[in-house]
Amino acid sequence: MKTKQPSTVALPTELKPRPRRIKLVDEIIESLRQDIVTRRLPDGERLPSEKELSDRFGVSQPTIREAIRALETLGLVEVLHGNGTFVRGQGDFALASALQTLLQLESVGIMEVIDIRQSLGRLSIELAVAKATDADIAEMARISDQFEQLGDLKEVDDVIARVIGFQRALSAASHNALLQSLEAFLLALLNEVQFKTLSGRGIRFWRARAMDFQPHRVAILDGIRARDAAVARAAMDRYFDAQRERFEQDDILRAINLSNPRLIDAVSDMVRQFRT
């Protein structure tokens, strides 16, 4: 006896999923994006003129202009008026811009940012213990030693740059490019919102705040030097616990939301600094 095969019922035309129509300009953007990320158009290369690109893609020059503007926003090209458009592979800027939009659209709170920062930082310390070179360790030690001269600094920006510098050097020792880019953005963001929110505090406040964390930096460095993952991880956890406590104990910091209109311009300025 033959087994009856189930019949296939065709969906009514109106229920069939319709393919999304891709705008021609989006196809051009994607084509040029692929040329850039695959290095068919290497960094520093001048793009063909608008006329040449319009002939290549069979579209008008205004359509090409729209595609170029989008690529510039993505941090992939730089338009030098009078000279042309050049490839500028600014991956960190592209990532920072995308993350800024995501965090603000989703109304992410600062404590959620700290959660992610801590998770990435713990991965970073594990990798640094295993992969840090002598040069990596020397760079972290150099920056750590500079905290002894923190009293010589007159500008808050210089204090914050030193704080970020140590953490970025630690992240670089992980030798994981994606991790470095994500951490660089989160480090800059956390410090920027602190500075803008607590902008009334003077240089002494920021010096003291930076020095409060110095014992943790020294302990982290000692753990990496000794290639002792347990010691380095414990020191990093103490660093993060102290950071979280600072935010939790301050009603203003704890309540920060990245969709707050007062912070949008400040975060945008911070993101623009990722342009090289």
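(the above was protein one; protein two follows)
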Amino acid sequence: MAKFNYYDRIAQNYDQTRWLTEPIAEVVADFMVNLVEANPDTSLLEAGVGTGVNVLPLVKRGYAVTGIDVSQEMLNQFRQKLSEVPSNLNLICTDASQLDFPDWSFDVVLTVHMIHAVANWQRFLDEIIRVLKPNGFYLNAQCITPPARLEFENYFRAILAKYEAQDSQPEPKPIAKINIDIDQYFLNKGYQSNYLIAKEWKVSNTVRELLSFFKLRAYGFCWRVSEEIFEQAIAEFENFCIKQYGSLDIELSSTAKFEIWAYQRL
């Protein structure tokens, strides 16, 4: 039986349900290029590359980019953004726990909100150090959920939790988040760390739009119950939204951030 991979199921809807748009990704790419002092020969690996939104600007600028992801469907979405896959882009469908590359292969390794999904995070970080070139950069990044969207999500999580306890045949669950002290790991390995905010921007969605994202089951926590139970939870949540916000057409706006923890051994 094939291992459950909810990323395959949400690939077609992934970009539209997130808040990192292509224009914002361009600004973030500028920030990363300046941060690592990239030159035409700079090579980059993104583990958990997904649909490529983080590195597509770099690919278009001609940098050598390798992307790996456990979901073939996510990689297919990346490929569809290009008329053809250019020679400077290498996409590989594989588990990130083992990086099948020679030592000192990349100037930059990038991860964006993905280490919590790696089964053995310490082995993964060991592998990052192994494939980084001397003086290379590891950029551990994440998009911080806009507070209004996070509040909306938490309302649904509370409702979903009631149904999860009742579900006799739940869907396979995505890997649970675990406590990971990445900063301490790299400090112990002799790396210097630097925390930076690459970009802040306002994100706005109507309640109706956000509700539609949940109906698509576009997030990992939406797969914790069976489809039948999920539909019941969504129906209750829609009624809750009407009472809570007064209208599904109310717009929720708040600020998102793209954070980067940069590590380099000098």
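Reviewer note on protein two: The first strand starts at residue 43 and ends at 47.
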